[in-house]
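pls ignore typos typing on phone
NAP + seq
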Amino acid sequence: MKYAVITGVSKGLGESVAKLFIESGIAVIGISRSKNSKLPQLAEENHTTYTHYSCDISDTAALEETYYDMEKEIFSEEPSAVYLVNNAGVVEPVDQAANIDYKDLLRHVHVNTAAPMVLTNLFLKKATAEGVQLVGANVTSGAANRPTYGWSAYCSTKASIDMYTQTVALEQEELNTGNKIIAFSPGIMDTEMQNKLRSSTKEQFASVDTFKKYKENEMLSDPDSVGSVLVDILTDEGIKSGNIYDVKDYL
Ligand SMILES: NC(=O)c1ccc[n+]([C@@H]2O[C@H](COP(=O)([O-])OP(=O)(O)OC[C@H]3O[C@@H](n4cnc5c(N)ncnc54)[C@H](OP(=O)(O)O)[C@@H]3O)[C@@H](O)[C@H]2O)c1
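k done
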């Protein structure tokens, strides 16, 4: 039995990735604060399982507790492989750096950087001890390599998760564990995150009009198409650990 653990399953890309894994018969464990009402029924129809863990991943202690519950659920079933998709992310606070309150900043860093690192570290340790392959993906952004006015937090956390991915991939390779870890840049998608960006003022986000045009001109990708690229990469035996995959090379 294979398991896929996906953060941010209530909507957007995370929901799409969860749907696709379920449709391929893989047992899915989803994490988000709010539940997804469609995934349990979909799992039943596809003769697999879906479990939801409600967790605010900015609370690291709560995340660790949730991890141990998931660990019990997964490893008691002697899985043949575990996929981990660190997808949950936030773009806010969107504003000039000098206007950002430190509490909002720390919350952002906890969701976008600390949570994926903590989850990956815990899964790597257990999977290696159990001799189960872990294949992990951290969802990144083009913003990791492109300074953007109003996105000092987002550009920094996405750049950070790219470096974490490459560093851990290097360690796993040298340790010869067989575990793989990649980053995946999904491009601009028609999700709630884009909606939030469009509601910014020009003072907060200088390119807001460009982002409004992306929506008006139907330039945003459908998260289901993007999700299928990610699931194909993750389930391909030839996956290159340490790579930062970009959806634009596939769609
Ligand atoms: N949309 C784009 O154009 C775009 C572009 C480049 C990269 N990305 C990246 O793609 C990923 C998915 O983005 P999306 O557009 O699908 O976002 P979205 O529609 O806003 O969904 C975000 C997901 O993350 C979860 N989440 C947020 N904060 C959380 C918290 N504190 N605890 C637990 N879960 C939390 C949300 O669940 P709850 O609210 O229910 O907790 C939701 O399921 C993100 O990493 C994002 O940075 C998106």
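Residues 8-14, 32-34, 56-58, 87-90, 111, 139, 141, 186, 188-189, 191-194 surround NAP (CB under 6 Å). Helices lie at 12-23, 39-45, 60-75, 102-130, 152-175, 192-198, 208-216, 223-235. more later
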